[in-house]
User: Fold this.
Amino acid sequence: MNEIHAVILLSGGLDSATCLAMARAEGYICHAISFRYGQRHAVELEAARQVAAWASVAEQVIIDIDLRQFGGSALTADIAVPKGRTAAEMTDGIPITYVPARNTIFLSYALAMAEVRGSSDIFIGVNALDYSGYPDCRPAFIESFQHTANLATRAGVEGKRPLRIHTPLMDMHKAEIIAAGSRLGLDYGMTVSCYDPTPDGAACGECDSCVLRKKGFAEAGIADPTRYAP
Assistant:
């Protein structure tokens, strides 16, 4: 039986953890890649370690890069994280929590890892619904990057194993994602979604990510295991 390897971008958040659970269920040998990029919610890396251990990944590589050198985002600069926004406000333009070129950078690292590991499959938990409108989470970007990846790698040019970028969550609402992960045995209590957690790691409960997470659990009819700040 041939072993099929896949590289999974694993932030430690709800979506990426579900993506890993799905790849695992499909029979892939999973290699997780996570990033310490200067994010204010670096507590998510401990969550990524827990999820990777649960999934028995072949390896987890944590890459250190410092996007705080550029700033430009509430996640990588001293800019306030928006709180208490309505669903309508979240879809009105690109929010300040967007990190410039983040997914382009992350996918480039994942591409290099996949080529070295002999993998033609990369999984990323981007979502075009119930999300904050980030341009690098949209289908057009993923399709474009996949095309570029197959022009830029030996494997792609030689045509032996064209690279595929899998986005199983792209057209799912948050409630559907939570239900799917729960069916696969994923404990969402391990995951961290908050953009502005307290020093002890409790979720703020008011940032866009927390609001969407709460809404997802409520609509899925599943108890939210998140530890929120008082």
Q: What stands out?
A: Residues 5-220 form a domain with the Rossmann fold fold (CATH 3.40.50.620). The chain has one domain: 5-220. The mean pLDDT is 94.
